[in-house]
Amino acid sequence: MENRSTYANLLNLVEKLKNSDDPKRKYEFILWLGKKLKVPNRSILIPENKVEGCVSEVFVKASIEEGKLYWEGYSDALITKGLLAFLINGLNELTPKEVVNVNNQFIEETGLRTSLTPSRANGFLNILLKMKSQANDFLSG
User: What is the 3-state secondary structure (H, E, C) of 95-134?
Assistant: First the structure.
């Protein structure tokens, strides 16, 4: 990513995963993130916030304050909740343009693709795409 300081939170999370060759440790980190995810306001559990293409139930919603996006989300599955938390922590407090411009390559850099089932890896990407779509809505809205 071109601006390291802009994406510092996301890059720090990617580094934590890159620094471990042990798939079990990667899973433990993702589970830990999921356990720390704040319980969202139940009002976000509506169809327009649902992430399509995920086996589990996943919802994510952005709100904007002073030009920065703040995310909340919910998933009924622990691993998916951790992946959601990873993205929420990584993309929180970025502008809509910064979120839209995130290079999806960071997913590969985490090394998670080899640890996750294909459906979970696809779900991870679908959550990111939903977040980018919501960020884009703020740009065009």
Answer: CHHHHHCCCCCHHHHHCHHHCCCHHHHHHHHHHHHHHHHH
Tens digits of pLDDT across the chain (141 residues): 457 789 999 999 999 999 888 888 999 999 999 999 999 999 999 999 999 987 899 999 999 999 999 999 999 999 999 999 999 999 999 999 999 999 999 999 998 887 788 888 889 999 999 999 999 999 986
Q: Is the pTM of the predicted complex or chain greater than 0.90? A: yes
From 13, 54, 94, 128, active-site residue:
54
CATH, range 8-140: 3.90.1010.10
SS3 category, 10: helix
Catalytic residue status for 54: yes
